[in-house]
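dumping this here before i forget
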Amino acid sequence: MAERNNTRVTEFILLGFAVDRDVEIVLFMLILVVYTLTLVGNSGMISLIRLDSRLHTPMYFFLSNLAFVDLCYSSSIAPKFLGTLLTKHRSISFYACATQLGFFLTFLITETFLLAVMAYDRYVAICNPLLYMVIMSHKVCVCLVLGPYLYSFSVALFHTTVTFQLFYCGPNIINHFYCDDVPLMALACSDTSLKEILLFIFAGVNTISSLTIILISYLYVVAAILRIQSAEGRYKAFSTCASHLTAVTIFYGTLIFMYLQPKSNHSLDTDKMASVFYTIVIPMLNPMIYSLRNQEVKNALRKATEKMLLLVSN
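structure:
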């Protein structure tokens, strides 16, 4: 390992997974399949919602934005990861690393608050069904989506700036497969205590605030569902929330495991496996979760497929 000196590094080396070449090829094939499914699934969901007028409702407006965010934050990581697995070219420039971290944080934070917005949407739909379209007007929906994007961009820009204002003098090997805060801080030659505190505070505030909105929304939803007299009515009301609850459980469970723990308890190898799950696998799962458990999406998909087959046959 190189000794530390006073020269600022100009590039980093992404260590990735320390495995045999044969394992890397298998991993490359798996990640390629998953990323392809992510691209197809999320872009397909966005197209389906735009093309089918029956899906032009607030819930599907938020879902299309979730698909867009999943597409973007997976794309900020997967292509470079695939490249390092295939070619073993593991270097990434200082500014490319900063750009990757910035984009990743922007879309990661946006997803946390989009899930909270979607929980609020379900609260309004079930607890105030007669006023749903009045409360969730197009203007309100745009504001509820625009807010997370702007906030997330601001926080990501701040964190990325603080991270890359630290002094990096070597070694320059990042013990990860992408540029992330925790392994980057381990390489800094300057004091990282302020950055660690900021990371813990912002991760905690973002996660707790968005989770609080989700929990409060669903407490009201559960109370409203329990007041429904018929079992069929309760099942129908709950089924509209099942997909979202599944996505929330998977996403936040992984996120809390990753970030809300002290630095001393971090195992970077464990974090890398968890990172593969929430950066590459979860964006693939979300379209499946929302399509397989949603009759309206399945009907729209069947209708679109029939139209496509009709066009091909003609």
